[in-house]
């Protein structure tokens, strides 16, 4: 049966809502888009937990935000989170799940790194960007169920359209391309966001699942490329057309905070580099195949040892 097209917003996110008394988790919240998201949530009154692999760097970012904006010490907290390590995910979730949660922004990620594997032999970009967030969302969903207008926002990339979800070779044994592996992980992010949303809606949950992206953004992610040529080329392109993290974050903030944002659209920046609006685009067919989404879900449950009730 055909469903009506989701309605695009008639007004941008001009006024940020008061988030006093609400709790948020932002993975990778110590730099780039994650730092902008953390800052915005905290300035609007939310208590924010940053999940970070580099705790020292995250603590420094926290201290800077608190001092710069004269925020109370408890407004932002930091906890270690390595999304390729199931034990780290378990510890983080155990700490973060102690009270109702309202916002979960799955932002952390790695990009175009040399080939390595997690403990199950899964290629690291897929393991980190998708499986780690899948496992974390599964563990935090009960807390989100108790929240106010609870939302999960999965940060992907417009490059998902170039991804190929080869579930039979998640170790990349047949040949490894850092760029192709990244695109696959971003496709998995989008498919996860959509499938999570379908399952939550079918179960009558109050939690909603969104996907968002930053467009071409100038973030520290690009400095991790192993190839010097790729780093140089990306820096040139980002310098010409890329947005700073603040403007680039408009899609994530719209998905997280706009009362009329539709989970059926992919939220990202459009228009001005410095003052963009958020445009919700329809998802491409590569992300909306239900059979493939179900297969990804089954594989993800098996590899992470977690289940998301539906």
Q: What's the total helix number?
A: 9
Biggest beta-sheet profile: 8 strands, mixed
Name the poorly predicted regions: 229-238
Overall geometry comes to globular
Intertermini distance: 22 Å
Q: From the alpha-carbon coordinates, what is the Rg to the nearest angstrom?
A: 18 Å
Number of strands: 8
Strand arrangement within the widest β-sheet reads 3-2-1-4-5-6-7-8
What is the H-and-E element order? EHEHEHEHEHEHHHEEH
**Structural class by helix and strand composition:** alpha/beta
Describe the structure.
The structure is a single chain. This protein has 310 residues and is of the alpha/beta class. It is 40% helix and 13% strand. Helix 4 (124-144) packs across helix 9 (290-304) and helix 5 packs across helix 9 (290-304). 50% of the residues are buried.
Describe the protein's topology.
Blueprint (H helix, E strand, L loop, with lengths): L22 E5 L4 H12 L3 E6 L2 H15 L6 E5 L5 H11 L6 E4 L17 H21 L6 E5 L22 H25 L5 E5 L15 H14 L3 H4 L1 H8 L8 E5 L6 E5 L8 H15 L6
Parallel strand pairs: 1-2, 1-4, 2-3, 4-5, 5-6, 6-7
Antiparallel strand pairs: 7-8
Helix pairs in contact: 3-4, 4-5, 4-9, 5-9
């Amino acid at each position: 049966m055909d469903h009506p097209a989701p309605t695009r917003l008639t007004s941008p996110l001009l006024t940020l809502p008061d988030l006093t008394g609400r709790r948020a988790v932002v993975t990778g919240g110590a730099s780039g888009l994650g730092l902008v998201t953390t800052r915005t949530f905290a300035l609007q009154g939310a208590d924010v937990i940053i999940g970070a692999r580099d705790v020292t760097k995250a603590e420094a970012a926290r201290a800077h935000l608190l001092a710069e904006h004269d925020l109370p010490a408890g407004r932002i907290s930091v906890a270690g989170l390595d999304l390729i390590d199931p034990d780290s995910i378990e510890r983080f979730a155990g700490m973060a799940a102690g009270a109702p949660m309202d916002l979960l922004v799955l932002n952390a990620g790695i990009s175009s790194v040399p080939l390595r594997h997690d403990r199950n032999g899964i290629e690291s970009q897929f393991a980190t960007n998708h499986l780690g967030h899948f496992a974390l969302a599964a563990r935090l969903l009960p807390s989100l169920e108790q929240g106010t207008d609870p939302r999960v926002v999965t940060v992907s990339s417009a490059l998902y359209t170039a991804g190929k979800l080869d579930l039979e070779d998640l170790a990349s044994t047949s040949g490894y391309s850092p760029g192709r592996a990244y695109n696959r992980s971003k496709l998995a992010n989008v498919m996860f966001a959509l499938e999570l949303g379908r399952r939550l809606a079918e179960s009558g949950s109050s939690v909603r699942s969104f996907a968002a992206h930053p467009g071409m953004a100038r973030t520290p992610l690009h400095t991790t490329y192993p190839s010097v040529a790729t780093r140089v080329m990306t820096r040139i392109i980002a310098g010409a057309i890329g947005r700073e993290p603040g403007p680039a974050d408009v899609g994530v903030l719209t998905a997280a905070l706009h009362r009329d944002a539709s989970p059926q659209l992919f939220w990202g920046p459009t228009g001005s580099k410095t003052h963009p609006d958020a445009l919700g685009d329809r998802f491409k067919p590569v992300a909306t195949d239900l059979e493939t989404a179900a297969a990804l879900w089954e594989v993800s449950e098996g590899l992470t040892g977690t289940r998301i009730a539906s």
